[in-house]
Design goal:
By secondary structure, this protein is an alpha/beta fold. The chain is 43% helix and 12% strand.
Length: 330
């Protein structure tokens, strides 16, 4: 507990310092002429769109490209997306090659704004470090070279960094800095919103710790569709395994599925989880074959709609933790 607090406090202090510096360097004068008009911001997917709204409040007009329950891995941008990017002053992206279609979209638009990479400053997990490390050569990558025909693949790092709340504090910082630079007259408001959001993130981080703490050591393996929860697992002490790789573009091989089925049986794993963004048939089949039940729906990389259980990032993380803890508890 004290270690966690110390981490968050020092991380927050470091961010506050660099925030103050970047504010000091922001140009004064002409930009203030824009006072009153919300900043046009494009966010690539729903989690980023939510964060920009929390920090920008009424001073931003946010367009989100991949909406609720949408799969960013396999998204195809539309002409309307290109127009939104052309008109944006700020484009907020996750980075770590999560948005494999981003460069093509920017090429197709007339974007002259600032691109903000939300993951700048986080400690990324190299994909080899992720799940399946006891099965060298798998990890849904080397073994899936045959799927290169689908187009781009992921990069060297796991892009799902938002799955640790600590990383979300970095996202919030990067967004606040960019908004303050774009509209220095509103920098105070962005800083207040960011501080309030960081308080909520810190409380959520502690809450997830408490929720997951209920699970004994033998109940901490979580089976999902695709490999999206390594940051969550590392931060909160769970092991996530999935038949699909880091991107939903890769397909699970029969060998991968057979190995997963053996592991579920051997460890006596009683529940597996479907995802809001991926087809549930494979997991349903694995559940039937192993006798595990479907423990619920997890949200790896997209919020739910307003009436679902995960309409905001905070709701999403809490929902995932509670769903896992409820289904795997003794
Ligand atoms: Zn994913």
């Amino acid at each position: 507990m004290p270690a966690r607090r110390a981490f968050l406090i020092s991380a927050t202090a470091a961010l506050a310092l660099s925030y103050a510096l970047s504010f000091a360097l922001a140009p004064a004068g002409p930009a203030a002429a824009q006072t009153g008009r919300p900043i046009p911001v494009v966010a690539t997917f729903s989690i980023l769109g939510d964060m920009v709204k929390r920090i920008g409040g009424e001073h931003v007009a946010v367009t989100t490209l991949v909406g609720p329950d949408g799969d960013t891995h396999v998204y195809r941008p539309t002409p309307a997306d290109a127009r939104a990017v052309s008109e944006a002053k700020i484009l907020v992206v996750n980075g770590l090659q999560f948005e494999g279609w981003l460069d093509r979209l920017i090429d197709a638009s007339d974007f002259r704004g600032v691109r903000v990479v939300a993951t700048d400053g986080i400690e990324p997990i190299a994909f080899e470090e992720g799940g399946h490390d006891d099965h060298a050569g798998h990890a849904g990558h080397a073994g899936h070279a045959g799927h290169e025909g689908h187009g781009h693949d992921h990069g060297a790092f796991d892009p799902h960094a938002w799955q640790s709340v600590r990383n979300a504090t970095v996202y919030a910082h990067n967004i606040a800095v960019a908004l303050a630079k774009a509209d220095p007259a509103k920098a105070g408001a962005f800083d207040r919103n960011r501080a309030a959001y960081l308080d909520r993130l810190e409380a959520l981080d502690a809450e997830i710790d408490r929720i997951v703490a209920k699970l004994p050591a033998g109940r901490r393996t979580v089976v999902t569709s695709h490999d999206a929860f390594q940051y969550f697992g590392r931060r909160y002490g769970l092991t996530f395994i999935a038949p699909q790789g880091l991107s939903t573009e890769s397909e699970a091989s029969a060998k991968d599925v057979a190995r997963l089925v053996r592991q579920i049986r051997a460890e006596g794993i009683r529940a597996v989880f479907v995802e809001n963004i991926t087809d549930s048939r494979l997991l349903t089949r694995i559940a039937e074959e192993t006798g595990a039940r479907i423990g619920g729906t997890l949200y790896p990389g997209a919020l739910s709609g307003p009436d679902g259980p995960a309409p905001t990032y905070l709701d999403m993380m809490r929902h995932n933790a509670k769903t896992i803890a409820k289904a795997l508890a003794p």
